[in-house]
Design a protein that fits this description.
CATH class of the largest domain: Alpha Beta
Largest sheet: 8 strands, parallel, barrel
Radius of gyration: 19 Å
Number of helices: 13
Strand order of the largest sheet: 1-2-3-4-5-6-7-8
Number of domains: 2
Structural class: alpha/beta
Strand content: 5-15%
Length: 321
């Protein structure tokens, strides 16, 4: 119930105005958000790189309402890609397609995606397309394949699969057959019971199954390594803060003989820093997703929805202030 409540709040304009006008709210959100500007985010990336982490920059924003907003969001993504090159940091980028026009005008979205991928290809970087809620699943997969058909290489473009969806095993198997780079997550949207597992235990079991499928696929792929500059990841990305899910992936990879350098764990900035450092010290590749930007409110609400500890951290400090 608490999870659904905060997901609904993430879409409520009145709540966004209330929270974003509070300095205490930004203080709490800054635990999970690396700043408002690209420059602030890149400084955080430098610090993470110095500790041994690779990163992915996520310019926050989704569901733009005009073509001008979609084009501006695309310009902002190109700006941070240019910043990555100038700074020489170990970072790639992650985007939401509704940020660059999907749901508004699919052709505009495709044009913006091509524009971003041309820059990514030219500078040998990597773009991860985040998966959003189920009204956009099919069109996201369609645009992903359309970009490959346009000639963009799989080494520059990846996708996210959500373990709580019933359809994900079938989608995953097809994508792995194509050699796609996949980031496996549990899922953070409020989906209807006919499309997603309503019980956490079922999502957890499916996550482990999909992780197993991904690890098995990685064993068959030659030259499945991270690039020297840390920007192009291995095929398999296990994205979780759940100790049990991570333990399963580690144990299964060791059992079948997948080297530590042939997959990576991905975790969000500000969440389970202890676990991030533990995995890094054990010799695993760890990529930290670094969100930034003025549109931090929906992202912040979803982080509160994921873990009750985040909620009480925010509330206690809100009223303390």
């Amino acid at each position: 119930m608490l999870r659904s409540f905060f997901i609904q709040l993430s879409k409520a304009g009145w709540a966004q105005r209330l929270v974003m006008n509070s300095s205490i709210s930004w203080w709490a959100a800054s635990r999970f958000v690396a700043g408002v500007s690209a420059e602030e985010a890149i400084q955080v990336v430098r610090e993470l790189n110095a500790k041994g982490f690779n990163t992915s920059l996520d310019h926050l924003g989704e569901h733009t309402s005009t073509v001008e907003e979609a084009n501006k969001a695309s310009d902002d993504i190109l700006y941070v890609l240019n910043g990555i090159n100038r700074a020489g940091v170990r970072a790639n980028v992650s985007i939401k397609l509704t940020q660059i026009g999907m749901g508004l005008d699919e052709e505009i979205c495709a044009q913006n995606l091509v524009r971003i991928l041309e820059y990514v290809k030219k500078n040998n970087n990597f773009l991860r397309i985040d998966m959003e809620d189920t009204p956009y699943t099919d069109v996201t997969l369609s645009l992903f394949h359309a970009m490959l058909e346009r000639g963009f290489d799989k080494s520059h473009l990846g996708l996210v699969i959500q373990a709580y969806l019933f359809r994900s095993e079938e989608d995953l198997r097809k994508l792995l057959e194509e050699g796609a780079h996949i980031r496996l997550v549990k899922g953070a949207y409020n989906e209807p019971p006919e499309k997603a597992f309503p019980k956490k235990a079922d999502t957890d079991a499916n996550y482990d199954l999909l992780a197993k499928i991904m690890i098995d696929a990685a064993l068959k792929i030659e030259s499945n390594k991270i690039s020297d500059d840390g920007r192009i990841p291995p095929i398999v990305a296990i994205a979780s803060h759940d100790d049990k899910r991570i333990a399963f992936a580690k144990q299964y990879a060791e059992k079948v003989g997948l080297p530590k350098e042939a997959f990576e764990f991905q975790m969000l900035y500000g969440i389970r820093r202890d676990l991030q450092e533990k995995l890094l010290n054990e010799g695993y590749l760890v990529r930290v997703y670094v969100p930034y930007g003025a549109q931090w409110y929906p992202y912040f609400m979803r982080r509160l929805a994921e873990r009750p500890a985040n909620v009480w951290f925010f509330i206690s400090n809100y009223f303390r202030g």
